[in-house]
Each structure stands twice: as structure tokens, then as C-alpha cells.
Design brief:
heterodimer, A: 570 residues, alpha/beta, five-stranded mixed sheet, four-stranded mixed sheet, 25 helices, B: 932 residues, seven-stranded mixed sheet, six-stranded mixed barrel, 29% helix
Chain lengths: 570, 932
């Protein structure tokens, strides 16, 4: 028989060569050994994915493809699951074959509102020109130090009131560790009567109904920004079936906000005590604390202080406390996105209903609180609701921790009456405007709360009072700007921030923020189209990010129309 | 998506666009609206992938709510007021579609873009926004074109891959505007772990994922509802036909697959259009002697065969058989039917052999796959059928999978198993190899090859010792337990641990898990059956189910996973030498009489010979004429060189097939036959579902449908047959097989599938059997003890490795079909053997280099592929490669009860290097069927 012999080896491209290995990337034994060594005998459970990614990133300063595949094997996850999580968070550097790993040292320069007003762009440019190839200069969103803007972070070492020289010095001296904080440590806290209230709750001295009543009477509202009455939230979750969980949100990422950091840098146990009392009141035996990765110094403090607390617990059956580390994602400040992140996933907000109180972390009823909301609990129990309700002005009741930054003489956290006006706050707490700067406008609630002009500086600042102006106070992060700034530029900065930080899940936010940035960068704004887009983003986005993203842009059209005319645009 | 949707609770009434309508408790606003004729735009939602709520195109206005709500995710509540078309809702719906339109490129990749559909409905013109930067096309996969310029990030593909098929290759990476669909680590699809099930392509609403080569841009002339020709799962599918060629297929909502398919089903259809199709009858040239040691190229047949008319071919074919029957007696003849053909073909084929050849020498490939399972099941339970369908995994708490690799060989069945495990069902995987399912297993019991019986006996020992038996079930429904109990005394896990290599404690845990679960189900495959102790293995599994009462209820039972698309039916139809249709023994007076009456002639009452016995009989000169319909023993029989030599010795070999197979090469007459999609017929899947397969295209050239060929042969063998069509044959099947008596052709055509037993017309059919009684004479299940029987040929100094043969995902059996399919051939172009990287290291062989395997029976060379899942000292190889036919190496030693050969174990020598494989005109990635 006339054979027409063909060998796949010889015939070149016509014939295909078989795969030499199974389908897809195979596990590299060396990379697997590295990962196994890093993970040690820690649990491989799914929700620890981000924690384990941090271990690899910390050690090798990037995540190699080989290590990701090895981690997937080790945790019995698919490669896609590991990759999508690793690429979601800004603080992970995924490096594939053929790509150069980033330099060992990264300098992160904040480019959010206050830092940009204070010259972050120039700082970035000069650092890029001076630091050389061995250092990566990265533009990053707010790092929570707006009172000392501009800020650069060398490795984990924050340089406040940064300039190129200060940064270069830190780089040169390899000063890359976070600052050390002088906090009220466990011993001191306990010596001053700390955890007495918690013990009194546990031993029955405090009656649960009275505690709940005190919470209601104090008028304490969720201080992450939503302002949901804390007492009511406790009662709702208390009524849910066990087992229940608590999740504490310290992903303080709203540009301009630094209050949680402020309290934790001083008195972390006050927060722990409030947290434990909350857990007692609701019937929770497991607590997850989610801290943004930018707060490295606080992470060190919390790790040490939680360990001390666990080693010397105020009660025998204290709940289990888990510390979880964010990885650079503003969206994880959104309660359901944070829950997803604690579960080891991408921080994509969930659709509601069901609400977190019903179906939250790991599918269980969950009490989620901003750190500060818990911080006040001890005072409410010990001093009574009056510690809050005795304060307030202009018809409003309570205290607010205002994070003020921008063109004022004394920026920082100011605990002031709820209902105080912007003008009062500048004058009474912030030492007035910086010389040469005239009060022109302000962001009452970070990047997402909209922008108000100086002429509206006499509105009481509190939850609900700004709704009629299409603004909100949120986490009370106030950015004051002057006649040397343009509201329009700041609005573009805010929209770019939202574009960068959108999780990408829903169309109006993912596509809407990107299209808005393009339109807002044009010399002439298409105001009709932007307004239409705004309405759709507000109406149809899944979560608060997309719903609030148009606020600064709309504020400009509404309150700073002069800047949009041809003359104003210059 | 669920296999058995729950009943809807009491309805809810709400106002939709001013009209009061009702919705079921589980219904969303979108579903309820659709049911009431109100269309709401939607993209990320689909019935298959469910709702995710990310695209927001379906937002509606609900009275009293601050923002709009996604109607695909929201269930209406009593008295809710919803507007789908208010100015506000429409503004959002339109802008969302506009935003997405602005981001996808103008280049269309599909004729059925859902995005374009809604853009048209909502009257959206040119988007007012600038487009995004478009990603590059990824054409790295032979079957799937990835055009992410059409992607709208709706994640339907992610959910199809992750939640439905559980392959988890597709992810949604990065964030914000950079959000991107990726494969593994953003690898080219063709280099990813993708198994090409194509579910993502079917899910994609915009053409970002499409069949390769733009076939999706063609409008089919017709869509034909039919089935898959490959494995026993029995997936239903629709063939898209243009100019009498199948251009693509889509999954259909059949009971076994609910729309899902695997790579073979979705991309393996085009073999029927390969240029090698036989289109003319052939007769061997006088000057072309037969030789078992041959090399053949199906492209070059003129030197061996001459084309003849059907008349000449049929006369010659039948004449040869008549002559042998008349001169040498009926037992000098035999027939191999096919588990690939329809029930009607199988029925007629065995009837031809029994009434035309007048012998019971009729068998088929079940002998090589599940004969031992069937023998054990008949012996212990009185029926060889599966007790419960695959879909019962949904109701099972524990699944045992032993000696089966469903993700490779029953991929769609595996998806249901993986879905169940995702919901918490526990898997006990018993396999010496680590396979894909190992990752999901609660226990992967990696026992030593061939030690099934000691392992299973030890497990049963624990169940008895720890009193985990179901004594009521044993007392009421079984016999022989006391003897079994006594027999198992000697098999403590501690004693068996060194024999089966499984820690005693694991054996105990597994025993407890299986026995104490509310519902446990057992699946098994060739790893159990293809041993000299295959029947014993199956007996043990049956005993395990009987002593724990894990049978006869939903979510329990015994399921030998059937390999061929109609191996169940071919067996039911009597393509077995010992039994008539419906497993009626040929030596039983009553059944003998029944079939003599039905067929109107005398029948032989001696047991016929089985596949391997036939080969031996030929070798010994006792059998000289063989009729092979759609089988390829030259590749599939163990010790294939021996089989080829035997067949070369035949006086008269007639092969009826669609290609010139290795077997056909040895034929005296070759009859060009029809492929699955070229005829109508019924096929019985692994769940006992009888399903209808419809003709999509005509057979090529002068090729004929098998039913016609068999009938023409029968007439020339002296039988007066006048079956008009499959339907008429099926009417006779109903008389021959009482469990199918209630099925009507009309109902099959209407419903597509009916499960048996279906005793009388109108019966729904029982998907679960043995609920009250077994099929044995006394209705009881029988315990049959099994002793340890070692494998026939164990490793020694000269042949130190163990060789396991089996199959691979992309190629079907002997490769005659799939290696002629463009995509499957491109995915797995040439012969590979998988081997542990440590073993390769020891030989200083790198993955991808050549190795040579030799046994006492033969020697072949192929590419080594490192696979950590294969134990050290073991080689695994699929038998689909003609250039390295592993069955030339396998051992023909038989199980004494079932006569099944020991494909799963023989001693082999592995050496580095080897002769380069020689390809002919197919395989090696050459397939280039023109479909359009």
C-alpha cells in the first residue's frame, strides 16, 4: 500500500504539536515550596486569600505568576479566582513571565483632593525625576493624612508635609517602616478603669434593655457616613437568629477622612471595649476587624493590643477577634464590599435586599459598624446619653468628629457640635483661613458629598441637613478650598478618583465614571448630557459609590456655574 | 439552575405599569413581567446563568424606593407598584444600553447580539460617548474566538464556567474601567486550563465569545433537534445546518444535560464532513492480501479496494456468509454490533445474526467495558440497568466515585456532580490516580491498582463491625447476608491496609460516611469493570449498597456510568451472546420459545461467543466469517496485534462503517454507512432514558443508512424483512423488550425522551428502580462474597511499570471520529502517555519528549506528558491513537464470569526515546473539514 507518511515533527506548521503538559499552567515546585514556607501551618481556608497574598507580596515585593498558581493549588482555589482577587486590589503587584517586577521600593504619593490642592502633582513630577529607577513612584488615592498634605509614603513610612527633599532623604536612609505610635496601651487602659463597663455587662450589672435604651437615647448614628441609628441597628441584629457575626469597618478611605485613624492612634482599647459590649448586647461570638492597608502603624498597634487583650481577657468567654488587612480599595469601605473582602474575594458590593443585618458575612446575620460608632459606646454607658445629647447647635444634637483639611490654619480632627456651620468651624476650630486665601467653597463630606460655595457656609452641618442641596456630610470629612482653587478642577479630581476606585461591577458606575471624566476634561462641559448621566448613575448604580460619584460634578454645575463659562474655564 | 424546580408557593399580586398581575413566590419582577407580555431590557440575566444584577439594563421604578431596582433580582411583594416604562426607568434603561454600546466595537461578531437587540428596541442611535480603548482579539483557541471588543463585562461567561460547568477557568479581573474577563491568569484561552465545553460561548450575549472561524456569522438553513453521538450521558442538542453541512451545535434542554455540553459534543460534530468518509461500497482487490501487521492510510485505498455497486457489494457480502453458514455451520459466523448505532439498528443486527446466521455469536463493545458490571448486577439484583439517574446526585449526601473519571469521560454528568458538591454533598473518590475531581473530594482514597476487592471488603467489614448496616433492609430485601458477614470477618481494615495501601483509619472514616449518610450513591466506570476481578469488584459495590440500604430511594443506588451513547440500548436490544433482547437467556426455555414465536423461526439455544473468545476462535480456525457494524476491534481489543492477526485470517470479513477503520482495512467488503446525525433512531443513555436522535444531513455520496444496509443484508441471508423505517422496527422492539412496551414512537417524537421501565402506554416511566423489590426471581438482592484475585500480569524486573489504558477528554474511543474533527484534532493532535514527573526525572526524560512503552505483546512510542496525578511507577494512555495504539500492549486476560479483558492493568517497560510517530492523512492536527 502506497503510504503517504507524514510526521508531525517534520511537517512544520501544518501539523500541530501536542501540549507537553496538562492544560494550563502547571505548578512550579520551587514556587510551591516558597508559598508553603510562607504560609506555614496557617489555615488554607478560602477567606484567607487576601491575607496570604499579602504574605507573598510582603516577602517578594510582588506576586509572581508562579507563586499565584502555587497559592491556588495550596488553597484549593482555581487560578482565575486567585488572579481576579490579586488584580482587584491596588497593593498587589502581579508580575507575569517576561514582565519586570516593580522596584523593591515604592513611594506612594497621594493625589486626592487636599494633597492635589497642596501640590502633589509637582511632588510626583520631581520625585520621578530625582529618585531614579530603583524606586517606583505611584499616584495613590487618599492615605488619611490630609491635615499634613501633601503626603508621600515611602514603603510604609508616611512623610507628611512632604517635599522632594524629605522623601529623598527617607529613601536614601531606607526609612521605610511605619511610624511608631504612642497609644494608651492595654495596661494603662485597664488601670484607668477600662473594660469595667464590659465586665459589668457580662456579669449582669448592666441590664441589656437599659443598654439598648441608652444607645437609642444617645442618638448615636453610624459614623461611617450612612448615619443609621446605632441603637436601632443593634436591636435589629439582636433579633436575628444565631450564629451572628460582627464586622468592624476601618477602611477609612473617603478622601479627607482621618477621624478613625485619629482615635486609633490614641485609644484603641476604647474602641475594643465598645466592640465587645456590642457583641455582648447582640449575642455575637466572632468579630472581624477590617483595617485599610494604608494604616500600617495602626495595624502594628492593633496586632499587639489585640494579642494583649486575648492574653489577659476581661472576661472568660470573650468573642474571637480576627484582624483583617485591606489591600488598597476604597470600595471596601462599602459595607457589603468589605464583607466580600473579608471573605477573601474581590470587593464587589452586594445587591440589597437582603441586607447585611440579615445575610452578611459568610451568609450570617452581621452587625457592621464603623469603628467610631463603637468608640463612643463606653462613654454612653458610663456617662450616660448626655455625653452626646448635651451637645449640638443650630437645632441639631450631638457631637461630630470633623476631619478638616485644605486652606485653613489648623486642619485636623475637630470634635464639635453637630449642626455647627462651616463658617463657625473655620473660625472657632480651624484658626481661620490661611493667609492670602479667601474662603471659596468646601466639600462637606469627602469626595462624594458634593461641593458647596462659601456663600452657603452657614448651613448647619449634620446628617440630613444637606440633602436639600444635593450634598451630604457622610463621614464629616471637610475639605476647605479658596479663591486660589477651582471647584471644577477638584470635581474632575473627585471623578477620576471614582473612576479609579469603581469596582467595575455595574454599568452606570464602571462606564459612567469613565465617560464623565472624559466629558469633564473637555473645555466645554456638555451639561445636559452630564446631568442625564448623573441621574442615571444616581438611580441605577448598585452602591453608594456610583450613586454619589456625580455629586461634585453636579455641584459645580449648580453652585459654580461661572467656572463653566468660557471665561471661567481659563 | 436546578434540575427539579421547586413548586411555586402562593402567588403575589402587584401592580405592573398600572395593571395588577400575579407572580409566584420565587419569581422576579422581570420574569413576572415577561410572562405578562411586558419586555424589560436585560443583558447580564439569562435563564441559564441566572441573575446577577450588574448590567442594570433592567432597572424599574418601584413606588416608595429611593432609587431604581434591578427587576432581574427583585421579587415583587404584595401590593408593590412597579413601573417598567416610566420616564425615569426608561431614561436609565436607555442610557445603560447606550453606555455599553459606546464601549463595544462596531465590528459584529454575532448575528444575535442581545445588546443590539435592546439598542434597537429602545431606539438608541449613535452613542454620545467616546469609545473605550479596545483589547486585541485572542484567537489562540482552535474552537473559540475571543473578541473582547464586544465584551460588556456582564459575567454570564464567568457564571457559565464557574457556577454551571464548575470549570472555573474564567474570571473577572482588575477593577473599574479596567475590569476584564480573563482565562486563568489572563492567559490566552488556548493556553489556559479551558476544557472547551463552550458553555461561555453559549452564554455570551454579544459575540465576545464565539465559535472560531466566524461560523456564528452564518445563518443556518435549518435547526435540527437531535442528540450527541459520543458518550452515555445522552445530551440533547440542536444541529445548525447550512447547505447540508452542520456548522455548529447548541445545547438543548434535555433531561440529562439541560443545555450543557462538553467539548466533544459541542465541537466534535464535523467528523461526518471529513474527506475520508466512505461514499462507495468497496470490495477487496484480489491482489491485496491481508496482514495483521499493516500500515494504512485511509486516504489511499485504491491499492486495497475497488469501488463497486451496492448490488455487487451486498451480494458478495451476504454470499460469503451464506456459503460459510451452509458449508461450515452457523457457529463459524459471528457479528459485532455497535453501541454507537440506534436501538433499532442494534435490534435488527442481533436479529440478523440470530435468525440469518443462526448463531448466538453476537456481541459488542459492552464486553470490553461494562460486561462485568452487568453480570454482577444481573446476578445480584436481576437487572443490569442503573438504579438511579445521574441527576440524583442533587439528592445525595454522599457520592462514591470509583474507577471513573467523569470530567473526562462523562463531562456533563460531572457538572451535576460538581454542582452537588458545591452545595455540600460529600465526595468519596476512590482512584489510584489523582484526577480533576480529587480537588473537590472529601476523601481521595488512592488505593493500589487492582486492590479494589480488599479495599471494599475492608469498608464493608467496618460497616458490619460498627453496626452501621441497615438491618431492616437486609432482613426484608436481601439474601445471603450471614455468609457475607462471615466472609468479611477476615478483612479488617488493619489487615487490608498493606494490601490496598489505604490507611485503616481512612477506610473506617469512608465506611462511616457512606453508611450513615441519609442518601449515598455509587458511580463506577471502567476502573472497576476492566479487571480479571471486574465482576468481583462490582459485586462488592452492590453488597455495599445492599447492606446499608443505600438503594431504592432518590439520591441512592448504583450507577455504572455507561460509556457509549447507546451501550445501554445495545445491551437491552440483545447484542449479547448469552441473552436475547431484554436480557432473556438464550438457554431459557420460556424466553427461547417467546423469541422463536416473535421472530417466526428456530433459534440456537447455545450461548454464543464473546468478543475476545471470537478472536480466539478465529485464531483457532473455528470461526471464519465476521460481520462488523460500526466497531473497531483492531484498535479496541486487548492485545490488538493478536486481534488484527485473527481478523486477517478470516475467510470473510464484512465491515459496515463510516470510515476505513483499522478493522475495515482487513475487510473483504466495506459497506459505507451513516453517522448519527444522518439518520433517525432511538438511543438509550446511562439513565435508561430512551431519546430520539434526528437526521440533520443526508449521508454523503452513496453511503446508506445502517437500517437499510442491515435489511438488505438480511434479505440476502434469506430473511423476508420489510421494515419501512425505524418506527416500524421500534414497534417490534416494544414487543421484544417489555420494559419499553409502553413507549410509543409518537410520544418519543413529541417528548424527545422517555425513561424505562415504561410497561404500558401512558406510563410516565420510573427513573428510579428497585424501590420495592429487585428484579431477581424471588425479588431479593443477593450478597455475593468476593475474594482477593490478583491482577493477571504484575510488574517484574523486566516490565517494572504498570500500564493503565483509558480515554481522554477530546478523543472518543479509537479516535476514528474525533481525530477527524478539526477542533478536537487540533486540541490533542498526537499520541501522549501521562506519567508522574518523578518517574520521568528518574529516566532523565523531560515532559514532551518521546518515550517507548513495551510489553510482552508489543511496543509503541509516544510523547511523555508529566502528570502529578499518575502514581509513580504507572503509565496511563488513551487508546485513540493509531500511530501508537496502546491496545497493542494491553493484556487479553479475561474475567472468568464476564469475559471482560484486563485493560486496566498490565506490566510494561518504559524507556526514554523512541521512533518518531508516523502519521498518515489524519491525526496530528491535520483535520481541515470545510464547513462553509
Amino acid at each position: 500500500m502506497g503510504r503517504q507518511e507524514i510526521s508531525a515533527r517534520k511537517s512544520g506548521n501544518k501539523l500541530k504539536l501536542p501540549r507537553t503538559i496538562g492544560k494550563g499552567r502547571q505548578v512550579d515546585p520551587k514556587a510551591l515550596a516558597e508559598v508553603q514556607a510562607l504560609l506555614g501551618d496557617e489555615s488554607r481556608q478560602k477567606d484567607l486569600l487576601i491575607e496570604h497574598l499579602h504574605k507573598i507580596q510582603d516577602k517578594y515585593k510582588h506576586l509572581s505568576a508562579a507563586n499565584l498558581v502555587a497559592l491556588a493549588r495550596e488553597m484549593n482555589l482555581s487560578k482565575a479566582e486567585v488572579y481576579e482577587v490579586a488584580t482587584f486590589y491596588h497593593h498587589f503587584d502581579v508580575v507575569k513571565e517576561g514582565d519586570a517586577p516593580p522596584p523593591k521600593l515604592t513611594v506612594r504619593v497621594c493625589e486626592s483632593l487636599t494633597c492635589s490642592m497642596k501640590g502633589s502633582e509637582n511632588l510626583v513630577t520631581s520625585l520621578e525625576n530625582t529618585l531614579g529607577k530603583g524606586v517606583r513612584v505611584q499616584r495613590v488615592p487618599c492615605v488619611g493624612r490630609c491635615e499634613k498634605a501633601p503626603v508621600a509614603v515611602v514603603g510604609m513610612n508616611p512623610i507628611e508635609d512632604a517635599d522632594a527633599e524629605k522623601v529623598a532623604a527617607a529613601v536614601k536612609n531606607n526609612e521605610i517602616e511605619p511610624e511608631s505610635l504612642q497609644v494608651i496601651e492595654h495596661e494603662a487602659y485597664v488601670d484607668n478603669g477600662g473594660y469595667t463597663s464590659y465586665r459589668m455587662c457580662k456579669n449582669g450589672t448592666y441590664n441589656i434593655d437599659k443598654v439598648l435604651d441608652a444607645m437609642d437615647d444617645s442618638g448615636l448614628r453610624g459614623l461611617g457616613g450612612a448615619g443609621f441609628p446605632a441603637g436601632r441597628k443593634w436591636r435589629i441584629v439582636r433579633g436575628m437568629p444565631e450564629p451572628k457575626l460582627m464586622a468592624v469597618n476601618i477602611d477609612e478611605g473617603e478622601p479627607g477622612t482621618l477621624k478613625d485613624k485619629y482615635y486609633l492612634e490614641r485609644d484603641p482599647h476604647r474602641f475594643f471595649e465598645g466592640m465587645l459590649i456590642g457583641a455582648w448586647a447582640i449575642g455575637i461570638d466572632e468579630i472581624y476587624i477590617y483595617l485599610r492597608d494604608e494604616y500600617a502603624a495602626i495595624r502594628n498597634v492593633l496586632e499587639v493590643e489585640v494579642a494583649k487583650l486575648v492574653a489577659d481577657p476581661p472576661v472568660e468567654d470573650m468573642p474571637i477577634i480576627h484582624l483583617r488587612r485591606g489591600a488598597g480599595a476604597y470600595i471596601c469601605g462599602e459595607e457589603s464590599a468589605m464583607i466580600e473582602s473579608i471573605e477573601g474575594k474581590r470587593g464587589m458590593p452586594r445587591l440589597r435586599p437582603p441586607f447585611v443585618a440579615e445575610v452578611g458575612l459568610f451568609g450570617r446575620p452581621t452587625l457592621e459598624h464603623n469603628m467610631e460608632s463603637l468608640y463612643w459606646v463606653r462613654d454612653i454607658l458610663e456617662k450616660g446619653p448626655g455625653c452626646l445629647t448635651d451637645h449640638g447647635r443650630n437645632g441639631r444634637v450631638g457631637l461630630r468628629s470633623f476631619s478638616v483639611s485644605g486652606r485653613v490654619n489648623k486642619p485636623g480632627v475637630h470634635v464639635a457640635d453637630a449642626g455647627i456651620t462651616m463658617i463657625e468651624l473655620i473660625e472657632e476650630y480651624c484658626g481661620g483661613m490661611i493667609d492670602g486665601h479667601q474662603f471659596y467653597g468646601y466639600f462637606p463630606g469627602g469626595a462624594s458629598g458634593g461641593i458647596l460655595p462659601a456663600s452657603m457656609g452657614n448651613i448647619p452641618l449634620d446628617f440630613d441637613t444637606l440633602n436639600e442641596y444635593d450634598c451630604f456630610i457622610g463621614s464629616a470629612a471637610i475639605v476647605v478650598f479658596s479663591n486660589q482653587d477651582k471647584a471644577r478642577d477638584l470635581a474632575v479630581n473627585a471623578m477620576k478618583f471614582f473612576e479609579e476606585e469603581s469596582c467595575g461591577q455595574c454599568t452606570p458606575c464602571r462606564v459612567g465614571t469613565a465617560k464623565a471624566v472624559i466629558l469633564m476634561k473637555k473645555p466645554q462641559w456638555d451639561e445636559d448630557l452630564l446631568e442625564e448621566l448623573s441621574e442615571v448613575m444616581i438611580d441605577s448604580s448598585i452602591c453608594g459609590l456610583g450613586q454619589a460619584a456625580p455629586n461634585p460634578m453636579r455641584s459645580v454645575m449648580k453652585y459654580f456655574p461661572d467656572e463653566l463659562t468660557k471665561a471661567g474655564a481659563k | 439552575m436546578v434540575i427539579n424546580p421547586e413548586e411555586l408557593a402562593s402567588p403575589i399580586s402587584f401592580s405592573l405599569n398600572g395593571e395588577t398581575i400575579t407572580a409566584g413566590a420565587e419569581e422576579t419582577i422581570l420574569d413576572a413581567a415577561k410572562r405578562n407580555g411586558v419586555e424589560i431590557p436585560h443583558l447580564c440575566y439569562s435563564q441559564r446563568q441566572g441573575s446577577d444584577g450588574n448590567c442594570r439594563a433592567c432597572v424599574v421604578e418601584i413606588d416608595g424606593e429611593r432609587v431604581l431596582a434591578p427587576s432581574c433580582c427583585r421579587a415583587p411583594t404584595e401590593d408593590m407598584t412597579v413601573q417598567t416604562n416610566s420616564k425615569r426607568a426608561l431614561k436609565s434603561q436607555k442610557m445603560i444600553v447606550e453606555l455599553l454600546k459606546s464601549d463595544v466595537s462596531e465590528q459584529a461578531h454575532t448575528l444575535n447580539s442581545e445588546l443590539d437587540y435592546w439598542a434597537g428596541k429602545l431606539d438608541i442611535g449613535i452613542p454620545r460617548f467616546e469609545a473605550r480603548h479596545q483589547p486585541q482579539a485572542d484567537n489562540s483557541h482552535p474552537g473559540i474566538a475571543v473578541n473582547m471588543d464586544a465584551c460588556i463585562q456582564c459575567t454570564r461567561c464567568v457564571r457559565a464556567c464557574r457556577d454551571e460547568q464548575n470549570n472555573d477557568v474564567i474570571g473577572l479581573a482588575r477593577r473599574g474601567t479596567h475590569t476584564q474577563i480573563v482565562f486563568d491568569l489572563d492567559d490566552p484561552m488556548g493556553e489556559s486550563t479551558c476544557v472547551a465545553c463552550g458553555e461561555c460561548v453559549e452564554a455570551c450575549p454579544t459575540g465576545a465569545l464565539m465559535p472560531a472561524d466566524d461560523v456564528g456569522m452564518a445563518s443556518p438553513d435549518r435547526m435540527v433537534e437531535s442528540g450527541c453521538p459520543f458518550c452515555g450521558v445522552g445530551c440533547q442538542m440542536t444541529y445548525a445546518v447550512k447547505d447540508d453541512k452542520i456548522i455548529y451545535v447548541k445545547g438543548r434542554d434535555g433531561p440529562a444535560n439541560h443545555g450543557r455540553l462538553c467539548v466533544k459534543g459541542r465541537y466534535g460534530f464535523d467528523y461526518i464532513h471529513h474527506p475520508h468518509r466512505l461514499t462507495k461500497p468497496l470490495i477487496r482487490r484480489d491482489d491485496a492480501p491481508k496482514s495483521g501487521d499493516f500500515s494504512m492510510d485511509p486516504n489511499d485505498i485504491d491499492k486495497i479496494f475497488r469501488e463497486v455497486t451496492w448490488e455487487e457489494a451486498l451480494n458478495f457480502a451476504a454470499g460469503g456468509f451464506n456459503k460459510i453458514r451452509d458449508e461450515q455451520g452457523p457457529n463459524a459466523l459471528a457479528g459485532f454490533g455497535s453501541a454507537k448505532g440506534s436501538n433499532e439498528e442494534a435490534y435488527l443486527f442481533q436479529k440478523l445474526v440470530r435468525t440469518g446466521f443462526k448463531t448466538n455469536n453476537v456481541d459488542h463493545c459492552t464486553r470490553l467495558c461494562h460486561a462485568s458490571s452487568v453480570v454482577a448486577l444481573l446476578e445480584c439484583l436481576g437487572s443490569g440497568a442503573v438504579s438511579n439517574p445521574v441527576s440524583d446526585v442533587e439528592k445525595a449526601d454522599v457520592i462514591i466515585i470509583i474507577g471513573a473519571n467523569p470530567t473526562v469521560n462523562h463531562p456533563v454528568a460531572a457538572t451535576w456532580m460538581k454542582n452537588a458538591m458545591r452545595r455540600g454533598t460529600k465526595l468519596i473518590l476512590m482512584d489510584p490516580r489523582s484526577i480533576e475531581l480529587s480537588a473537590q473530594a472529601t476523601h481521595h482514597v488512592a488505593f493500589k491498582l487492582g486492590s479494589d476487592v480488599p479495599m471494599l471488603n475492608a469498608i464493608m467489614h467496618v460497616i458490619i463491625e460498627e453496626n452501621l448496616t441497615d438491618s431492616k433492609f437486609i432482613a426484608e430485601r436481601t439474601e445471603g447476608f450471614e455468609a457475607m458477614k462471615a466472609h468479611l470477618q477476615a478483612y479488617s481494615p488493619e489487615t487490608m491496609e498493606p494490601i490496598c495501601g489505604v490507611p485503616a483509619n481512612t477506610l473506617r472514616q469512608v465506611a462511616r460516611l457512606y453508611a450513615t449518610a441519609s442518601n449515598s450513591i455509587i458511580f463506577w466506570g471502567m476502573g472497576v469493570s476492566q479487571h480479571v476481578h471486574g465482576t468481583d469488584n462490582a459485586r462488592c459495590l452492590i453488597s455495599l449498597a445492599l447492606m446499608t440500604g443505600q438503594i431504592g430511594r432518590p439520591g441512592t443506588g448504583l450507577h455504572p456510568l455507561r460509556g457509549q451513547n447507546n451501550v445501554q440500548g445495545a445491551s437491552d436490544m440483545g447484542l449479547i451472546p448469552m441473552v436475547f433482547p431484554d436480557y432473556q437467556p438464550v438457554d431459557d426455555k420460556k424466553s427461547h420459545a417467546y423469541f422463536e414465536e416473535l421472530w417466526g423461526c428456530e433459534l440456537d439455544n447455545n450461548l454464543g461467543l464473546t468478543v475476545v473468545e471470537i478472536m480466539h476462535a478465529i485464531h483457532d480456525g473455528d470461526l471464519t466469517g465476521l460481520y462488523v457494524q460500526g466497531e473497531n476491534p483492531a484498535m479496541s481489543d486487548p492485545d490488538a496485534n493478536h486481534a488484527r492477526e485473527s481478523m486477517a485470517q478470516l475467510q470473510h470479513l464484512v465491515v459496515q462503517d463510516i470510515f476505513l477503520t483499522e478493522t475495515a482495512y482487513l475487510a473483504d467488503v466495506v459497506l459505507p454507512a451513516s453517522a448519527y446525525s444522518e439518520k433517525i433512531g432511538t438511543f438509550t443513555n446511562t439513565d435508561r432514558l430512551v431519546q430520539i436522535g434526528r437526521q440533520a444531513v443526508p449521508p454523503p455520496g452513496d453511503a446508506r443508512q445502517d437500517l437499510w444496509i442491515i435489511q438488505e443484508m438480511a434479505r440476502r441471508l434469506g430473511l423476508d424483512w420489510n421494515y419501512k423505517d425505524s418506527k416500524e422496527v421500534f414497534e417490534e422492539v416494544r414487543k421484544a423488550v417489555p420494559t419499553m412496551a409502553g413507549m410509543t414512537w409518537q410520544r418519543l417524537e413529541k417528548e424527545g425522551s422517555i425513561v424505562y421501565p415504561c410497561l404500558k402506554e401512558g406510563d410516565l416511566g420510573d427513573d428510579i428502580i428497585f424501590t420495592d423489590t429487585f428484579e431477581s426471581a424471588n425479588g431479593l438482592g443477593k450478597f455475593v462474597p468476593a475474594d482477593i484475585v490478583p491482577p493477571d500480569e504484575r510488574p517484574d524486573e523486566e516490565y517494572p511499570f504498570i500500564l493503565i489504558t483509558g480515554r481522554m477528554l477530546e478523543h472518543w474511543h479509537t479516535g476514528s471520529m474525533t481525530r477527524r474533527s478539526n477542533i478536537l484534532d487540533a486540541l490533542e493532535p498526537e499520541a501522549v502517555a501521562t506519567i508522574n514527573p518523578i518517574s520521568l526525572d528518574e529516566m532523565s526524560v523531560k515532559t514532551g519528549e518521546m518515550i517507548t512503552l513495551s510489553t510482552r505483546r508489543g511496543q509503541i512510542s509516544m510523547i511523555a506528558r508529566a502528570d502529578e496525578g499518575v502514581p509513580t511507577g504507572v503509565v496511563f494512555m488513551a487508546f485513540c491513537y493509531y500511530e501508537a495504539a496502546v491496545n497493542e500492549l494491553s493484556n487479553a486476560a479475561l474475567d472468568p464470569s464476564a469475559k471482560i479483558p484486563e485493560f486496566k492493568y498490565c506490566a510494561v517497560k518504559v524507556t526514554a526515546g523512541g521512533e518518531t510517530m508516523q502519521f498518515h492523512s489524519y491525526g496530528g492536527g491535520q483535520s481541515n473539514n470545510k464547513l462553509m
